[in-house]
Specification:
With 741 residues, the protein is of the alpha/beta class. The chain is built from 23 helices and 28 strands. It folds into 4 domains: 140 residues; 235 residues, no CATH class; 183 residues, Nucleotide cyclase, GGDEF domain (Alpha-Beta Plaits), CATH 3.30.70; 63 residues, no CATH class. A hairpin with a 2-residue loop joins strand 21 and strand 22. InterPro entries: A/G_cyclase, Adenylyl/Guanylyl_Cyclase_3/4, CHASE2, Nucleotide_cyclase.
């Protein structure tokens, strides 16, 4: 295979190799769970998710009375710094119950007993008190028991903390208090996979655990970038499943005995599918996580300062039939989280938001089981579409296609999000689309520049500079590939060139031809023509390509007259230089031609071919026969309406059976008498073609002397005389057959 063909094939292969490599790279980027890929992917997908949550939250407004009691800076200033005495929490619980709260959830840890100050007081007394006095005193200051009593009179859910901490000495998991898993049905048989696992905990005081309606862990779950976007509803410790604070509050609120996990058992592994809470189904991923449907910035739910409740300042019905979450927004208590909607979002409001989401779980954004397959399908479809449709497109077309593709991809993603609450990651899809767009746009610019250079190389010496500029501004307006177009072609040949060449040396002939071709070429280029070729003393040009030109016939005829006028000036120069004079014949024809960059792998040229081209060459050869400088075909005459014409003949050229009517365009500077003489001659030929030979002979004999072509007069006198003596056959069509080219 020739080297240039091998290079061409290699370049074509590279056009597919690079995009395919990009597709494979993005597929691996999406599939591989390696931190090098996973962290940036999840970070950017997380930012896109954050934008959706902030700008396009699809979930409806809350329908449940959810109140947040805030241990805020005002409360700390009025009641005292944390930790508060259990006496205060007991009072807070009693007052919330009295105000109408039906469920009270504490996002506060109660893992250790509070020291009873009466114990120290009794130990310091010198005089022993009676037993009943001691018991009364101890009971009066037993604030844990007071809190137990308050909790026993309401539906309360307390927080526990699950962790992985170990004792530094024994290396055993730290476990404090009591942990209960009664709220979750322990239904799994196989080993649990994916659900968060812990080894230690800070539970509840046994006395508190006995009276509360439920307990749930307060743990938060951050993504790799530290943002809380999802929470786990259940977690595992020692093979037992424990609910989150929000899930347990919802279970208590719904009067459900147990939450029932649903599992899919595969290869002796249990994968969580979701949770059944009474008649409510909550879909989760296999890590027991759901997306948190944040409803807005912090304090979307009503906040009430704990101090306002303790100081009996609440006079309205805000807590009537309310689910209350007690927590803190105070900065110093370190319960502020980074979320999609705010960087300092109170942890207690996250629990409230999750509880609210469980009220209407159908509006929780989720990733269906098939999300990974859909992601791969999207990437493959985008890659294949770009490979098939953007191979050699212009940068503008590629940009528009890429923009439309981005609109479709983002639109479908937002439609799934907004209408069906389905969350699909978007970064990998956008990354592939943008990478391919950049590649194809860059390739388009490269190919466009290459095409500009190619076009300039092909046309630079053959078309007008103005055309070159237009072509380079819009290379797509021309094609080097073959196409059929209606064009006008011009042939010009020096008469008697053989005799002229014999009178000069090779060097003199070259200079003479260059001196001749320069002004002739300028006339063609200034008339918006395209030089096809020079063959010896012949010039071939055409109009209407590479750029479309509706007036191609008019411009070709105008260029022919300009050539004749320029030749008169040139001959004056030749006379002064004592050089032979130049006389030319010009043939012009209009019709459908094949035009394009034609040739071999070794040499090519932008040219025209076809029967209409051949006829133009024949017409140039007939100019000497009829004694005219210019001959045009009937289609040129029909389209070049800017000129008047002298009817010359109907001819059958060699190789063609159909007759062609030929004309000679008349110069615009003819006098009225000359114009009338030409019109009279046209009438004579009409009589001739209609077999009215006697009338034609009579009019020809009286033709005005202003008709200067005596050669034509003699030609038709001879023909008419012949037909008067020997009439033509009945099927005579008026044409004359030329047997030479």
């Amino acid at each position: 295979m020739p080297s240039h063909l091998l290079v061409k094939k290699l370049k074509r292969s590279l056009r597919y190799f690079v995009p395919t490599l990009m597709l494979v790279a993005v597929l691996l980027f999406q599939l591989l769970e390696v931190s090098f890929f996973q962290l940036p992917r999840e970070r950017i997908d997380g930012l896109i998710y954050d934008l959706k949550v902030k700008r396009l939250p699809p979930w409806p407004a809350s329908v449940t009375n959810i109140q947040i009691v805030d241990i805020d800076e005002f409360s700390l200033a009025n009641i005292g710094r944390m930790p508060w005495s259990r006496e205060i929490f007991a009072e807070l619980t009693q007052k919330l119950t009295a105000l109408g709260a039906i469920v009270i959830s504490y996002d506060v840890l109660f893992a250790e007993p509070q020291i009873n100050p009466a114990v120290a007081v009794l130990a310091s007394l010198e005089q022993e008190l009676a037993q009943h006095q001691r018991e009364m005193l101890l009971q009066q200051f037993d604030y844990d028991q007071q809190f137990v009593t308050a909790l026993a009179n309401t539906e309360a859910v307390l927080s526990v903390l699950l962790h992985q901490d170990k004792d530094s000495k024994t290396l055993q998991a730290l476990r404090v208090g009591v942990l209960s898993a009664d709220g979750v049905a322990q239904t799994q048989i196989e080993a649990i996979t994916g659900v968060p696992q812990y080894s230690g905990y800070a539970g509840l005081l046994p006395s508190l655990a006995e009276v509360v309606a439920g307990q749930g862990y307060m743990n938060s779950f951050e993504d790799a970038d530290g943002f809380v976007r999802r929470v786990a509803l259940i977690a595992e410790l020692d093979g037992q499943l424990y609910p989150s604070l929000a899930l347990e509050a919802f279970r208590v609120y719904s009067l459900i005995e147990q939450v029932i996990p649903t599992w899919q058992n595969l290869s002796k592994q249990a994968y969580l599918q979701g949770l059944r809470i009474g008649n409510t189904w909550v879909a989760t991923d296999n890590q027991a996580k759901i997306f948190v449907p944040f409803r807005g910035q912090a304090r979307t739910y009503p906040y009430t300062s704990a101090a306002a409740i303790l100081n009996d300042e609440i006079q309205d019905q805000r807590f009537d039939q309310a689910v209350v979450f007690v927590g803190t927004s105070a900065t110093g208590l370190a319960d502020l989280r980074a979320t999609p909607v705010a960087l300092g979002f109170p942890g207690v409001e996250i629990h409230a938001t999750v509880f609210d989401a469980l009220i209407a779980p159908q509006f929780i954004p989720h990733q269906p089981d098939w999300w990974a397959e859909v992601m791969l399908l999207q990437l493959l479809v985008i890659g294949i579409l770009c490979l098939c449709l953007l191979g050699e497109r212009s940068p503008l077309v590629t940009s528009v296609f890429a923009l439309l593709l981005l609109v479709v991809v983002i639109g479908v993603n937002l439609l799934l999000w907004y209408q069906f609450f389905i969350y699909l990651p978007l970064f990998s899809v956008l990354l592939l689309t943008l990478l391919l767009a950049v590649f194809y746009i860059s390739s388009g610019f490269f190919l466009e520049n290459k095409k500009r250079r190619q076009v300039k190389a092909v046309f630079d010496q053959y078309v007008p500079p103005a055309h070159i500029d237009r072509i380079l501004q819009n290379p797509e307006s021309v094609t080097l590939a073959g196409e059929k177009k209606e064009l006008s072609v011009l042939f010009s040949d020096i008469r008697g060139f053989t005799s002229i060449s014999e009178t000069m040396t090779a060097g003199e002939l070259k200079l003479w031809l260059n001196q001749f071709f320069s002004p002739i070429t300028r006339c063609i280029l200034e008339g918006d023509g395209t030089i096809d070729k020079y063959v010896g003393d012949m010039v071939m040009a055409f109009w209407g390509a590479p750029l479309d030109e509706p007036q191609h016939a008019n411009k070709a005829v105008a260029a022919a007259f300009s050539m004749l006028q320029e030749l008169e000036t040139l001959n004056l120069t030749f006379v002064a230089q004592n050089k032979p004079l130049a006389h030319i014949g010009i043939g012009i024809n209009t019709g459908e031609m094949n035009v394009g960059d034609m040739g071999s792998d070794f040499r090519r040229s932008y040219t025209v071919i076809g029967d209409a081209v051949n006829l133009g060459s024949r017409l140039e050869g007939l100019t000497k026969f009829y004694g005219v400088d210019i001959l045009v075909g009937e289609f040129t005459r029909a389209q070049a309406q800017d000129f008047s014409y002298l009817l010359i003949d109907k001819v059958k050229v060699k190789g063609k059976d159909a007759p062609v009517t030929i004309y000679s365009p008349l110069a615009v500077h003819l006098s009225q008498t000359q114009q009338k003489a030409c019109n009279d001659f046209n009438h004579i030929l009409e009589c001739y073609f209609s077999r009215q030979f006697t009338q034609a002979q009579a009019e020809l004999s009286t033709l005005s002397p202003d008709f200067s072509n005596r050669h034509l007069i003699a030609l038709y006198e001879q023909r008419i005389q012949h037909f008067l003596q020997e009439p033509p056959p009945d099927d005579w069509d008026g044409s004359f057959t030329h047997t030479s080219k």
